[in-house]
Amino acid sequence: MTLLTALPAPGSYRLAGTGRWCSVFAVTELANASIAAAGLELAQLISALNLAPVAPEVTVDQRLASLWFSCSLRPVGWELPSLWDPIAGNYQAADGWIRLHTNLPHHRRAALQVLGCEGNRSGAEAAVRHWQAGILEKEIVTAGGAAAAMRSRTDWLAHPQGSAVAAEPLIHWISPRKIQLRNRPEATADRPLAGLRVLDLTRVLAGPVSTRTLAGFGAEVLRIDPPGWDEPGVISDISLGKRMASLDLRSNEGRQRFETLLSNTDVLVHGYRPGVLDGLGYGADARRRIAPNAVEVTLDAYGWTGPWAQRRGFDSLVQMSAGIAETGRVQARTGNPHPLPVQALDHATGYLMAAAVLSALAAAAQGEEVPAARLSLARTAELLAGLQKYAEGLDLTKPADSDYNPEIENSGWGPGRRLAAPLGLDTSRMRWDRPASRCGSAPACWPQ
């Protein structure tokens, strides 16, 4: 068994459907291959667990794969809240462009504090014009906010962080150890992940996409958020198939319940920056002591080495830093940043994280040592920058009615229709046993 290290070759899976995102970058190719990676690693796990005589073939629907890189839920009779805070977005500075990410209240406060302006768009625009983009980026990040100046690909690759990320592997496997997989009699070729307990400590998109993917093949996913946490405009998309619970890890009761959960976990997925879990008392040694047989996969924004390894970041910011938005601007012949049509770094990284989980489980099933896996949005940006475009089909504009399942999903916000699944195996159909639900709507315990 070889652990996953790269995207699968196009000929290793069947490709159906047509349609592609309009972009100078190979966004649809990235969607196809990252989703296929999860399918192929699941096929290997099915074989390793002897759930089928041979590894099943994998099919990816190109149109649906592309559409799942956007929002998968169409509300019926209600509207999704805006994905973005009013202050979030691109701003013209004195010498270039900068993007502010203010969706989280503390990031918004940090940006407005540095700018010294009122909390409205026009005030922020006027204030940013007096700053050099790189200096403002540094000041906001130092204040605990999230921002990124627009750089070219050349500037990014010459930057200490850009060169560090380019030298990192796509999936960094570290600290191998033997683990004993828990017996799961519920697992079948149709629901190969049934009974698998996945503890989800991720936010926003990439990590939640990975655990949503695992839930699509039967995994029991329990996501833990701080009390009062919410991600309007996102949660209804990425909480599909999961139980959503809350715990305060700074309280004794919350810590005790968390440790009980962790001790009974098969897979731990988290997206904390390096050192954050250590600060809570749950560093790598503590996690292995509490959950010695758990597969672990984690991500960060800007990579695991280099001066920005601990920097806060999101897909839209990494696109600005890594030269994606600037390359798009040049190709589109516009003066403004021109990002990807979707948050492809988040989604692709999420599917690759799911694939890494499945790869590690297959290795464990065959008695091999299992390392932890680390991925990053910035390294996925390098992957995308090197991909060749080849996908055929008309450019996508918006989903058609036929792209959705006919059944109504009764989500925690109201009824809606979900996009049809983009991934299928000969033995397994991707489907979710639970509708999307609100943060904190479930108890913090594993189902009996």
TrEMBL record:
UniProt keyword terms in alphabetical order: Transferase
Entry-linked Gene3D superfamilies: Crotonobetainyl-coa:carnitine coa-transferase, domain 1
Q: Which top-rank group of organisms is this from?
A: Bacteria
Which GO terms label this protein's molecular function in UniProt? transferase activity
- One matching Pfam family: CoA_transf_3
Q: Which InterPro entries does its entry note?
A: CoA-transferase_III, CoA-Trfase_fam_III, CoA-Trfase_III_dom_1_sf
Q: Does this UniProt record's set of keywords contain Transferase? A: yes
* SUPFAM superfamilies with a match to the protein in the record: CoA-transferase family III (CaiB/BaiF)
Name the UniProt record assigns to this protein: CAIB/BAIF family CoA transferase
Organism for this UniProt entry: Leisingera methylohalidivorans DSM 14336
